[in-house]
Each structure stands twice: as C-alpha cells, then as structure tokens.
Specification:
single chain, 230 residues, alpha+beta, Fructose-1,6-Bisphosphatase, Chain A, domain 1, D-Maltodextrin-Binding Protein, domain 2, 2 domains, eight-stranded mixed beta sheet, globular
Length: 230
C-alpha cells in the first residue's frame, strides 16, 4: 500500500496493527487508539489513548533487512518496543524500564551507558530544521568523529538500544515527536531508564519542540548539543 512520498505499508504492517488492536480492544475496549495504518479510532474513554506503530522500519523489512521495531505506547504512560526478529522486548510502566529475551526467565533492568560511543542518526527526510541543522552534516564534524561512531539503522529500535546501553545516543530531526506513533514508545523507555531526552534545541519535548536528542547521560547529551548548535 503506497501512502505517497516514498512512504508505504506492507501487508505485515497492516496485519501487525490489526493483531495489536485486538489485544488492546480485548483488555481496554473503551480506550482510544491512534494507529499508523488505521488512523484515529475513538473510544468512550478518550482520556486514555494508545499510539501504535506496527512496523517501524518498513523499508528495511521490505528489502529483507530485519532491523525493525514494533512500538506501542499509552500516551504519558506505559510503553513497549519489540524487536520481533531479535526475539526481544523492551518495556516500561512509566517509572522503571526493563528488557526481556524470548524464552528468558528474568527481566533485565535497562541501564543506559555511553561506553559504546555509538550514536544513531536518523538521515531519513523530511528535514524541517535545514539549513540550520542537517543530520548528515553532524557526521562530517571532526569533533563528532573524534568522540563518537555513527550508526544509521533507520528504525526507532535504536531508541530502545539507547535505553539498554547499546547506543550512546540517538539524534533525529522533525517536529514534535512526543506524540508520534513512531517515537512515543522509545521516548518513554529512555525517560524511564534515566536517559537525557530533549529536542534539538535542548528544550523539553512538546508542541513547540523540534526533533529529538536522546542520550545515555548528561555528558554525552551536552557534547551533542554543542555540536548541533555549532
């Protein structure tokens, strides 16, 4: 299904969203849902809204690159990010954050760290902050490559990796991403794990915000902000 502008959905996107909605409807039939494929579906309880992104990384999936995420978030509450091909799920109750391997018997507390020095940068359009900020130009900065090593996986699974200590940070352009079906679950995970999460301007995420910088710690966040502002 072509949604225009190079954006499309596979049958897997549509089927996955349908299965997720079945689970939500069974447990919380009155809750509202905003799905990437099905759009907004109202419930009697509009104070509770689920944000559903059934397959973040559709282009990856379509060419056989299995770096994708399944994102489900209760707005301003619990959230989960699944790596369906890695057999792993990351989740938060809004306070703590954990990870669980398929077949595992114990949940792992997510512990962010910048030790890997790997920074995931989203290079997909649109680029609303250009010409002031272009993500690709960040990768060409001498101070960036001296301190960090870039990665581009093109899926918000990278946000879960920041929370789990597998990435030092994640950077993307954009508008207000706090209520995005693509980003809400990963943002919730990072916040609950203790990461530093702001917009590209260093301000809190919100309606007037733009983009996202999620870093494992304040030092890493500060370094990236100085590069972005520079």
């Amino acid at each position: 299904m072509d949604k225009g502008g190079g954006d499309f959905a596979t049958a897997a996107d549509v089927e996955a969203e349908g299965r997720i909605l079945e689970v939500i409807r069974a447990a919380r039939p009155d809750d509202a849902v905003l799905g990437e494929e099905g759009g907004r579906q109202g419930g009697a309880n509009l104070g509770r809204q689920w944000l559903v992104d059934p397959l973040c990384g559709t282009l990856n999936y379509a060419v056989g690159n299995m770096l994708v995420a399944v994102n489900v978030a209760l707005r301003d509450g619990a959230a989960a990010v699944a790596d369906p091909f890695g057999g792993e799920v990351f989740f938060t109750d809004g306070v703590g954050a954990w990870g669980r391997q398929e077949g595992g018997t114990e949940d792992m507390v997510l512990a962010p760290t910048a030790d890997s020095r790997l920074v995931d940068v989203n290079l997909d359009p649109p680029f609303p902050s250009a010409p002031g900020f272009r993500a690709v130009e960040l990768l060409a900065r001498v101070d960036f490559v001296e301190r960090f090593r870039p990665r581009v996986v093109s899926t918000t699974l990278a946000l879960a990796w920041v929370a789990a200590g597998r990435r030092a940070a994640y950077v993307t352009d954009g508008g207000d991403l706090s209520g995005s079906v693509h980003f809400a679950a990963g943002i919730a995970l990072c916040r609950a794990a203790g990461c530093v999460v702001t917009g590209l301007d260093g301000a809190p995420l919100g309606e007037d915000g733009r983009g996202l910088v999620a870093a494992a710690d304040a030092e890493t966040h500060g370094m990236l902000m100085s590069m972005i502002r520079g």
